[in-house]
Amino acid sequence: MTALTQHAEQLSTTTLLRFATAGSVDDGKSTLVGRLLHDSKSVLTDQLEAVEHASRSRGQEVPDLALLTDGLRAEREQGITIDVAYRYFATPRRRFILADTPGHVQYTRNMVTGASTAELAVVLVDARNGVVEQTRRHAAVAALLRVPHVVLAVNKMDLVDYAEPVFAAIAEEFTAYAASLGVPGWGSGGDPQENWCTAVPISALAGDNVVEPSAHMDWYGGPTVLEHLETVPVSHDLTGCHARFPVQYVIRPQTAEHPDYRGYAGQIAAGAFRVGEAVTVLPSGRTSTIAGIDALGESVDIAWAPQSVTIRLADDIDVSRGDLIAPADDAPAVTQDVEATVCHVADQPLVVGQRVLLKHTTRTVKAIVKDIPSRLTLDDLSQHPAPGRLVANDIGRVVVRTAEPLALDAYADSRRTGSFLLIDPADGTTLTAGMAGASFAAEAEADAADDDAEWDF
Protein backbone atom coordinates (compact mmCIF):
# COMPACT_ATOMS: atom_id res chain seq x y z
CA MET A 1 0.00 0.00 0.00
CA THR A 2 1.46 3.38 -1.03
CA ALA A 3 1.77 6.37 1.26
CA LEU A 4 -0.81 8.25 -0.83
CA THR A 5 -3.33 5.42 -0.50
CA GLN A 6 -2.76 5.20 3.25
CA HIS A 7 -3.24 8.94 3.60
CA ALA A 8 -6.44 8.84 1.52
CA GLU A 9 -7.85 6.10 3.73
CA GLN A 10 -6.90 8.07 6.84
CA LEU A 11 -8.69 11.17 5.57
CA SER A 12 -11.79 9.19 4.56
CA THR A 13 -12.27 8.30 8.23
CA THR A 14 -10.98 11.57 9.63
CA THR A 15 -11.51 12.39 13.28
CA LEU A 16 -12.07 16.09 12.58
CA LEU A 17 -15.26 17.66 11.22
CA ARG A 18 -15.74 21.36 10.56
CA PHE A 19 -19.41 22.36 10.56
CA ALA A 20 -21.53 25.50 10.74
CA THR A 21 -24.99 26.22 12.09
CA ALA A 22 -27.44 28.56 10.39
CA GLY A 23 -31.12 29.43 10.53
CA SER A 24 -33.58 32.24 10.97
CA VAL A 25 -33.83 34.43 14.07
CA ASP A 26 -35.03 32.57 17.19
CA ASP A 27 -34.92 29.17 15.51
CA GLY A 28 -32.74 27.98 18.38
CA LYS A 29 -29.22 27.75 16.94
CA SER A 30 -27.43 28.80 20.11
CA THR A 31 -29.65 26.53 22.20
CA LEU A 32 -28.85 23.61 19.90
CA VAL A 33 -25.13 24.29 20.16
CA GLY A 34 -25.40 24.64 23.92
CA ARG A 35 -27.30 21.36 24.11
CA LEU A 36 -24.64 19.64 22.00
CA LEU A 37 -21.89 20.92 24.26
CA HIS A 38 -23.80 20.14 27.47
CA ASP A 39 -25.07 16.67 26.61
CA SER A 40 -21.77 15.58 25.08
CA LYS A 41 -20.04 16.52 28.36
CA SER A 42 -17.99 19.24 26.64
CA VAL A 43 -18.78 22.03 29.12
CA LEU A 44 -16.46 22.81 32.01
CA THR A 45 -17.97 22.97 35.48
CA ASP A 46 -17.23 26.67 35.95
CA GLN A 47 -18.79 27.46 32.56
CA LEU A 48 -21.97 25.64 33.51
CA GLU A 49 -22.08 27.35 36.90
CA ALA A 50 -21.72 30.75 35.23
CA VAL A 51 -24.60 29.96 32.86
CA GLU A 52 -26.77 28.75 35.74
CA HIS A 53 -26.04 31.95 37.67
CA ALA A 54 -26.79 34.16 34.65
CA SER A 55 -30.02 32.26 34.00
CA ARG A 56 -31.20 32.64 37.62
CA SER A 57 -30.45 36.36 37.54
CA ARG A 58 -32.77 36.61 34.52
CA GLY A 59 -35.55 34.77 36.35
CA GLN A 60 -35.15 31.46 34.53
CA GLU A 61 -35.58 28.26 36.51
CA VAL A 62 -33.47 26.09 34.19
CA PRO A 63 -30.09 26.96 32.65
CA ASP A 64 -30.30 28.81 29.34
CA LEU A 65 -27.85 26.76 27.28
CA ALA A 66 -27.78 29.43 24.57
CA LEU A 67 -25.57 31.48 26.92
CA LEU A 68 -22.78 28.97 26.33
CA THR A 69 -22.31 30.38 22.84
CA ASP A 70 -23.73 33.92 22.91
CA GLY A 71 -20.61 35.52 24.36
CA LEU A 72 -21.06 39.17 23.40
CA ARG A 73 -22.93 41.41 25.84
CA ALA A 74 -25.27 42.58 23.06
CA GLU A 75 -26.01 38.97 22.18
CA ARG A 76 -26.97 38.08 25.75
CA GLU A 77 -29.06 41.22 26.21
CA GLN A 78 -31.01 40.69 22.98
CA GLY A 79 -31.02 36.90 22.99
CA ILE A 80 -29.59 36.75 19.49
CA THR A 81 -26.34 35.77 17.77
CA ILE A 82 -24.48 38.66 16.13
CA ASP A 83 -20.98 37.40 15.37
CA VAL A 84 -19.64 34.01 14.30
CA ALA A 85 -18.86 32.04 17.45
CA TYR A 86 -16.29 29.28 17.05
CA ARG A 87 -16.44 26.37 19.46
CA TYR A 88 -14.20 23.33 19.79
CA PHE A 89 -15.39 20.08 21.33
CA ALA A 90 -14.85 16.37 20.98
CA THR A 91 -16.47 13.00 21.54
CA PRO A 92 -14.73 9.62 21.64
CA ARG A 93 -15.49 9.21 17.92
CA ARG A 94 -14.58 12.60 16.44
CA ARG A 95 -13.28 16.12 17.06
CA PHE A 96 -15.34 19.13 15.95
CA ILE A 97 -14.78 22.75 14.99
CA LEU A 98 -18.14 24.53 15.07
CA ALA A 99 -19.03 27.92 13.61
CA ASP A 100 -22.28 29.20 15.14
CA THR A 101 -23.46 31.85 12.64
CA PRO A 102 -26.09 34.61 13.05
CA GLY A 103 -29.64 34.32 11.74
CA HIS A 104 -30.44 37.94 10.86
CA VAL A 105 -30.54 38.93 7.19
CA GLN A 106 -27.96 41.68 7.78
CA TYR A 107 -25.51 39.06 9.07
CA THR A 108 -25.75 36.70 6.09
CA ARG A 109 -22.14 37.60 5.30
CA ASN A 110 -21.16 36.07 8.65
CA MET A 111 -22.76 32.82 7.54
CA VAL A 112 -20.62 32.94 4.40
CA THR A 113 -17.54 33.29 6.60
CA GLY A 114 -18.50 30.38 8.84
CA ALA A 115 -19.55 28.05 6.03
CA SER A 116 -16.65 28.78 3.65
CA THR A 117 -14.46 26.09 5.23
CA ALA A 118 -17.26 23.88 6.58
CA GLU A 119 -17.73 20.28 5.52
CA LEU A 120 -21.29 20.25 6.88
CA ALA A 121 -23.97 22.86 7.56
CA VAL A 122 -26.77 22.49 10.09
CA VAL A 123 -29.77 24.55 8.91
CA LEU A 124 -32.37 25.03 11.63
CA VAL A 125 -36.08 25.52 11.00
CA ASP A 126 -38.74 26.39 13.57
CA ALA A 127 -41.40 23.67 13.28
CA ARG A 128 -44.12 26.30 13.84
CA ASN A 129 -42.96 28.56 11.00
CA GLY A 130 -41.60 26.08 8.47
CA VAL A 131 -39.28 27.11 5.65
CA VAL A 132 -38.97 30.91 5.59
CA GLU A 133 -36.98 33.33 3.45
CA GLN A 134 -33.89 33.13 5.65
CA THR A 135 -34.01 29.33 5.51
CA ARG A 136 -33.89 29.52 1.72
CA ARG A 137 -31.13 32.11 1.92
CA HIS A 138 -28.96 29.87 4.10
CA ALA A 139 -29.65 26.81 1.95
CA ALA A 140 -28.65 28.80 -1.12
CA VAL A 141 -25.44 30.01 0.53
CA ALA A 142 -24.58 26.44 1.54
CA ALA A 143 -25.19 25.28 -2.03
CA LEU A 144 -23.25 28.21 -3.47
CA LEU A 145 -20.29 27.46 -1.21
CA ARG A 146 -20.62 23.76 -2.11
CA VAL A 147 -20.76 22.59 1.47
CA PRO A 148 -20.65 18.79 1.01
CA HIS A 149 -23.30 17.85 3.61
CA VAL A 150 -26.36 19.53 5.11
CA VAL A 151 -28.48 18.65 8.15
CA LEU A 152 -32.01 20.07 8.18
CA ALA A 153 -32.80 20.32 11.90
CA VAL A 154 -36.53 20.88 12.39
CA ASN A 155 -36.48 22.41 15.87
CA LYS A 156 -39.14 23.05 18.53
CA MET A 157 -41.02 19.86 17.74
CA ASP A 158 -42.26 19.94 21.35
CA LEU A 159 -44.33 23.02 20.45
CA VAL A 160 -46.20 21.16 17.69
CA ASP A 161 -46.89 18.06 19.80
CA TYR A 162 -44.10 16.11 18.05
CA ALA A 163 -46.36 15.73 15.02
CA GLU A 164 -44.84 13.70 12.18
CA PRO A 165 -46.91 15.40 9.41
CA VAL A 166 -45.46 18.78 10.40
CA PHE A 167 -41.91 17.45 10.10
CA ALA A 168 -42.65 15.63 6.83
CA ALA A 169 -44.13 18.74 5.19
CA ILE A 170 -41.14 20.91 6.13
CA ALA A 171 -38.64 18.28 4.94
CA GLU A 172 -40.51 17.96 1.62
CA GLU A 173 -40.58 21.74 1.05
CA PHE A 174 -36.90 22.08 1.88
CA THR A 175 -36.03 19.15 -0.39
CA ALA A 176 -37.90 20.75 -3.29
CA TYR A 177 -36.02 24.02 -2.81
CA ALA A 178 -32.71 22.17 -2.56
CA ALA A 179 -33.45 20.41 -5.83
CA SER A 180 -33.97 23.80 -7.50
CA LEU A 181 -30.46 24.74 -6.36
CA GLY A 182 -29.05 21.75 -8.20
CA VAL A 183 -28.04 19.87 -5.06
CA PRO A 184 -28.00 16.11 -5.75
CA GLY A 185 -29.18 13.27 -3.56
CA TRP A 186 -31.19 15.02 -0.87
CA GLY A 187 -33.35 12.97 1.48
CA SER A 188 -34.46 12.62 5.08
CA GLY A 189 -33.40 10.17 7.76
CA GLY A 190 -31.91 6.81 6.88
CA ASP A 191 -28.25 6.00 6.45
CA PRO A 192 -26.25 9.24 6.78
CA GLN A 193 -23.69 7.96 4.31
CA GLU A 194 -26.30 7.73 1.55
CA ASN A 195 -27.68 11.28 1.80
CA TRP A 196 -26.22 14.68 1.02
CA CYS A 197 -28.89 16.11 3.33
CA THR A 198 -30.41 14.48 6.39
CA ALA A 199 -33.54 15.91 8.04
CA VAL A 200 -33.81 15.41 11.81
CA PRO A 201 -36.78 16.39 14.03
CA ILE A 202 -35.45 17.86 17.29
CA SER A 203 -36.21 19.90 20.37
CA ALA A 204 -33.00 21.66 21.35
CA LEU A 205 -34.56 22.97 24.55
CA ALA A 206 -35.72 19.55 25.74
CA GLY A 207 -32.84 17.61 24.17
CA ASP A 208 -34.94 15.43 21.86
CA ASN A 209 -32.81 13.83 19.08
CA VAL A 210 -29.87 16.16 19.71
CA VAL A 211 -27.55 13.78 21.54
CA GLU A 212 -30.02 11.21 22.86
CA PRO A 213 -32.92 9.68 20.84
CA SER A 214 -36.32 11.14 21.63
CA ALA A 215 -38.94 9.12 23.52
CA HIS A 216 -41.64 11.34 22.01
CA MET A 217 -40.94 10.62 18.32
CA ASP A 218 -40.90 6.86 17.89
CA TRP A 219 -42.02 7.44 14.28
CA TYR A 220 -38.51 8.74 13.45
CA GLY A 221 -35.91 6.06 12.84
CA GLY A 222 -32.95 8.17 11.69
CA PRO A 223 -29.85 9.35 13.57
CA THR A 224 -29.67 12.02 16.23
CA VAL A 225 -27.83 15.21 15.33
CA LEU A 226 -24.68 14.16 17.18
CA GLU A 227 -24.80 10.62 15.78
CA HIS A 228 -24.94 12.04 12.27
CA LEU A 229 -22.08 14.45 12.99
CA GLU A 230 -19.99 11.56 14.28
CA THR A 231 -20.65 9.27 11.31
CA VAL A 232 -21.03 11.51 8.26
CA PRO A 233 -18.16 10.69 5.87
CA VAL A 234 -15.60 13.41 5.21
CA SER A 235 -13.83 11.95 2.24
CA HIS A 236 -11.05 13.46 0.13
CA ASP A 237 -10.34 11.76 -3.17
CA LEU A 238 -6.71 12.83 -3.52
CA THR A 239 -6.20 11.00 -6.79
CA GLY A 240 -9.05 12.97 -8.37
CA CYS A 241 -7.94 16.41 -7.17
CA HIS A 242 -6.14 18.91 -9.38
CA ALA A 243 -2.74 19.26 -7.69
CA ARG A 244 -2.02 22.89 -6.80
CA PHE A 245 0.85 24.48 -4.86
CA PRO A 246 0.70 28.26 -4.27
CA VAL A 247 4.21 29.54 -3.49
CA GLN A 248 4.29 31.45 -0.22
CA TYR A 249 8.01 32.05 0.31
CA VAL A 250 11.29 31.55 -1.57
CA ILE A 251 14.01 30.01 0.61
CA ARG A 252 17.60 31.01 -0.26
CA PRO A 253 19.82 30.43 2.81
CA GLN A 254 23.08 31.06 0.87
CA THR A 255 25.14 29.54 3.66
CA ALA A 256 28.34 27.53 3.49
CA GLU A 257 26.32 24.39 4.12
CA HIS A 258 23.67 25.22 1.49
CA PRO A 259 25.29 27.64 -0.97
CA ASP A 260 23.00 26.87 -3.92
CA TYR A 261 19.78 25.85 -2.15
CA ARG A 262 16.63 27.33 -3.68
CA GLY A 263 13.31 26.06 -2.40
CA TYR A 264 9.72 27.20 -2.74
CA ALA A 265 7.76 26.93 0.50
CA GLY A 266 4.00 26.84 0.99
CA GLN A 267 1.00 24.68 1.74
CA ILE A 268 -0.27 22.24 -0.87
CA ALA A 269 -3.80 23.42 -1.66
CA ALA A 270 -4.97 20.23 -3.35
CA GLY A 271 -3.77 16.92 -4.73
CA ALA A 272 -0.29 15.45 -4.44
CA PHE A 273 3.19 16.11 -5.82
CA ARG A 274 5.98 13.58 -6.46
CA VAL A 275 9.70 13.86 -7.01
CA GLY A 276 10.47 13.58 -10.74
CA GLU A 277 7.07 14.98 -11.77
CA ALA A 278 6.95 17.51 -14.60
CA VAL A 279 5.39 20.78 -13.44
CA THR A 280 4.45 24.18 -14.80
CA VAL A 281 4.95 27.45 -12.94
CA LEU A 282 2.10 29.90 -13.50
CA PRO A 283 1.46 32.55 -14.65
CA SER A 284 4.82 32.51 -16.49
CA GLY A 285 4.17 29.08 -18.02
CA ARG A 286 7.77 27.92 -17.54
CA THR A 287 8.22 24.19 -17.04
CA SER A 288 10.57 22.11 -14.92
CA THR A 289 10.78 18.89 -12.91
CA ILE A 290 10.48 18.43 -9.15
CA ALA A 291 14.02 17.65 -7.97
CA GLY A 292 13.14 17.26 -4.30
CA ILE A 293 10.48 17.79 -1.64
CA ASP A 294 11.41 18.75 1.93
CA ALA A 295 8.90 18.23 4.73
CA LEU A 296 9.65 18.76 8.42
CA GLY A 297 13.38 18.89 7.73
CA GLU A 298 13.45 15.62 5.80
CA SER A 299 13.42 14.76 2.11
CA VAL A 300 10.33 12.85 0.94
CA ASP A 301 9.29 11.33 -2.37
CA ILE A 302 5.65 12.45 -2.22
CA ALA A 303 3.60 15.12 -0.44
CA TRP A 304 -0.13 15.88 -0.44
CA ALA A 305 -2.68 18.43 0.74
CA PRO A 306 -2.73 20.03 3.23
CA GLN A 307 0.93 19.48 4.06
CA SER A 308 3.29 22.46 4.29
CA VAL A 309 6.44 21.64 2.33
CA THR A 310 9.32 23.08 0.35
CA ILE A 311 9.56 22.08 -3.31
CA ARG A 312 12.90 22.19 -5.18
CA LEU A 313 12.94 22.34 -8.97
CA ALA A 314 15.55 20.89 -11.33
CA ASP A 315 15.86 24.13 -13.31
CA ASP A 316 16.86 27.57 -12.07
CA ILE A 317 13.79 29.52 -13.18
CA ASP A 318 12.14 32.67 -11.85
CA VAL A 319 9.60 31.73 -9.18
CA SER A 320 8.29 34.11 -6.52
CA ARG A 321 5.53 34.48 -3.95
CA GLY A 322 2.09 34.26 -5.57
CA ASP A 323 3.15 31.89 -8.34
CA LEU A 324 1.34 28.57 -8.65
CA ILE A 325 3.07 25.23 -9.28
CA ALA A 326 0.87 22.62 -10.98
CA PRO A 327 1.37 19.38 -12.95
CA ALA A 328 2.44 20.13 -16.50
CA ASP A 329 -0.42 18.04 -17.93
CA ASP A 330 -3.08 19.42 -15.54
CA ALA A 331 -2.40 23.14 -15.19
CA PRO A 332 -5.26 25.65 -14.84
CA ALA A 333 -5.91 28.23 -17.53
CA VAL A 334 -4.36 31.65 -17.02
CA THR A 335 -6.68 34.62 -17.44
CA GLN A 336 -7.09 38.29 -16.68
CA ASP A 337 -10.89 38.22 -17.04
CA VAL A 338 -12.56 36.68 -14.01
CA GLU A 339 -16.28 35.84 -14.04
CA ALA A 340 -17.61 34.79 -10.68
CA THR A 341 -20.49 34.57 -8.25
CA VAL A 342 -19.83 36.73 -5.20
CA CYS A 343 -21.26 37.56 -1.81
CA HIS A 344 -20.70 41.20 -0.89
CA VAL A 345 -19.67 41.46 2.76
CA ALA A 346 -18.72 45.13 3.24
CA ASP A 347 -21.00 47.97 4.34
CA GLN A 348 -19.84 50.09 1.40
CA PRO A 349 -21.31 48.99 -1.96
CA LEU A 350 -19.40 47.39 -4.83
CA VAL A 351 -19.96 49.35 -8.03
CA VAL A 352 -19.03 49.03 -11.69
CA GLY A 353 -15.72 50.73 -12.42
CA GLN A 354 -14.43 50.36 -8.87
CA ARG A 355 -10.71 49.67 -8.49
CA VAL A 356 -9.92 46.84 -6.08
CA LEU A 357 -7.27 44.34 -5.10
CA LEU A 358 -7.94 40.69 -5.88
CA LYS A 359 -6.38 38.19 -3.48
CA HIS A 360 -6.18 34.61 -4.79
CA THR A 361 -4.26 32.09 -2.64
CA THR A 362 -0.91 33.83 -2.00
CA ARG A 363 -1.18 36.23 -4.95
CA THR A 364 -2.64 39.76 -4.75
CA VAL A 365 -3.10 41.82 -7.92
CA LYS A 366 -4.75 45.10 -8.90
CA ALA A 367 -8.13 44.79 -10.61
CA ILE A 368 -11.19 46.72 -11.74
CA VAL A 369 -14.86 45.72 -11.60
CA LYS A 370 -15.85 45.72 -15.27
CA ASP A 371 -19.47 44.62 -14.89
CA ILE A 372 -22.10 43.41 -12.44
CA PRO A 373 -24.41 41.44 -14.77
CA SER A 374 -26.97 40.36 -12.18
CA ARG A 375 -28.05 40.12 -8.55
CA LEU A 376 -29.65 36.93 -7.26
CA THR A 377 -33.12 36.97 -5.70
CA LEU A 378 -33.13 34.05 -3.27
CA ASP A 379 -36.91 33.80 -2.98
CA ASP A 380 -37.32 32.37 -6.47
CA LEU A 381 -33.67 32.16 -7.63
CA SER A 382 -34.38 34.74 -10.31
CA GLN A 383 -31.67 37.06 -11.59
CA HIS A 384 -32.16 40.83 -11.32
CA PRO A 385 -30.27 42.10 -14.40
CA ALA A 386 -27.71 44.91 -14.37
CA PRO A 387 -28.15 46.16 -10.81
CA GLY A 388 -25.10 48.41 -11.16
CA ARG A 389 -24.02 47.74 -7.58
CA LEU A 390 -24.03 45.16 -4.82
CA VAL A 391 -24.68 46.11 -1.21
CA ALA A 392 -23.96 44.20 2.00
CA ASN A 393 -25.20 40.58 1.93
CA ASP A 394 -26.07 40.71 -1.79
CA ILE A 395 -25.20 37.69 -3.92
CA GLY A 396 -24.55 38.40 -7.57
CA ARG A 397 -22.42 37.90 -10.65
CA VAL A 398 -19.39 40.08 -11.37
CA VAL A 399 -16.81 40.42 -14.12
CA VAL A 400 -13.38 41.57 -12.96
CA ARG A 401 -10.38 42.53 -15.08
CA THR A 402 -7.00 42.00 -13.38
CA ALA A 403 -3.79 43.89 -14.09
CA GLU A 404 -1.81 40.63 -14.08
CA PRO A 405 -2.78 37.12 -15.19
CA LEU A 406 -4.14 34.65 -12.64
CA ALA A 407 -4.10 30.84 -12.58
CA LEU A 408 -7.67 30.41 -11.35
CA ASP A 409 -9.67 27.18 -11.13
CA ALA A 410 -13.43 26.99 -11.25
CA TYR A 411 -14.88 26.91 -7.74
CA ALA A 412 -16.80 23.79 -8.76
CA ASP A 413 -13.45 22.04 -9.18
CA SER A 414 -11.67 23.41 -6.12
CA ARG A 415 -12.97 25.37 -3.15
CA ARG A 416 -9.38 26.44 -2.34
CA THR A 417 -8.05 27.63 -5.69
CA GLY A 418 -11.43 28.67 -7.12
CA SER A 419 -12.11 31.27 -4.42
CA PHE A 420 -10.82 34.81 -4.02
CA LEU A 421 -11.39 38.07 -2.16
CA LEU A 422 -11.89 41.60 -3.44
CA ILE A 423 -10.18 44.11 -1.14
CA ASP A 424 -10.37 47.89 -0.83
CA PRO A 425 -6.87 49.14 -1.76
CA ALA A 426 -7.31 52.25 0.40
CA ASP A 427 -7.70 50.58 3.80
CA GLY A 428 -7.47 46.82 3.26
CA THR A 429 -11.15 46.16 3.99
CA THR A 430 -12.51 42.90 2.61
CA LEU A 431 -15.27 43.85 0.17
CA THR A 432 -16.42 40.66 -1.50
CA ALA A 433 -15.97 36.89 -1.33
CA GLY A 434 -15.85 35.40 -4.81
CA MET A 435 -16.32 31.96 -6.35
CA ALA A 436 -15.01 31.67 -9.89
CA GLY A 437 -17.09 30.03 -12.60
CA ALA A 438 -20.78 29.31 -13.03
CA SER A 439 -23.29 29.73 -10.19
CA PHE A 440 -25.36 26.87 -8.83
CA ALA A 441 -28.47 28.17 -10.61
CA ALA A 442 -26.86 27.84 -14.05
CA GLU A 443 -25.49 24.41 -13.17
CA ALA A 444 -28.89 23.25 -11.98
CA GLU A 445 -30.34 24.00 -15.40
CA ALA A 446 -27.41 22.34 -17.18
CA ASP A 447 -27.58 19.19 -15.05
CA ALA A 448 -31.36 18.86 -14.83
CA ALA A 449 -31.38 15.94 -17.24
CA ASP A 450 -28.59 14.09 -15.44
CA ASP A 451 -29.99 12.11 -12.54
CA ASP A 452 -26.54 10.94 -11.47
CA ALA A 453 -24.96 14.38 -11.39
CA GLU A 454 -22.65 14.93 -8.40
CA TRP A 455 -20.50 17.77 -7.24
CA ASP A 456 -16.73 17.50 -7.32
CA PHE A 457 -15.48 18.79 -3.98
Features:
single chain, 457 residues, alpha+beta, eight-stranded antiparallel β-sheet, 32% strand, globular, disordered C terminus
Oligomer: single chain
Distance between the termini: 25 Å
Q: If you average the pLDDT, what whole number results?
A: 82
> Care to count the β-strands?
25
> Can you count the helices?
9
How does the helix and strand content classify structurally? alpha+beta
Shape annotation:
globular
Strand content: 25-35%
Uncertain ranges: 71-82, 185-194, 447-457
- The level of helicity is 10-25%
Largest sheet: 8 strands, antiparallel
What integer value in Å does the Rg equal?
24 Å
Q: Summary?
A:
The chain has 457 residues and is an alpha+beta fold.
Could you walk me through the main structural features you see in this protein, from its secondary elements to its overall organization?
Helices cover 20% and strands 32% of the residues. With 457 residues, it is an alpha+beta fold. The strands form 5 sheets. Strands 7, 8, 9, 11, 12, 13, 15 and 16 form an 8-stranded antiparallel sheet that branches. A 6-stranded mixed sheet has the order 2-3-1-4-5-6, sandwiched between helices. The protein is globular.
Question: How is the topology of this model organized?
Answer:
Blueprint: H1 3-12, E1 16-23, H2 29-39, H3 45-57, H4 73-78, E2 85-90, E3 95-100, H5 108-115, E4 120-126, H6 133-144, E5 149-155, H7 164-180, E6 197-201, H8 225-231, E7 245-246, E8 249-251, E9 263-267, E10 272-274, E11 278-282, E12 286-295, E13 298-300, E14 302-304, E15 308-313, E16 324-327, E17 334-344, E18 350-351, E19 355-360, E20 363-377, E21 382-385, E22 389-390, E23 395-407, E24 419-423, E25 430-436, H9 440-446
Parallel strand pairs: 1-3, 1-4, 4-5, 5-6
Antiparallel strand pairs: 2-3, 7-16, 8-9, 9-15, 10-14, 11-12, 11-16, 12-13, 12-15, 17-23, 17-25, 18-22, 19-20, 19-24, 20-21, 20-23, 24-25
Helix pairs in contact: 5-6
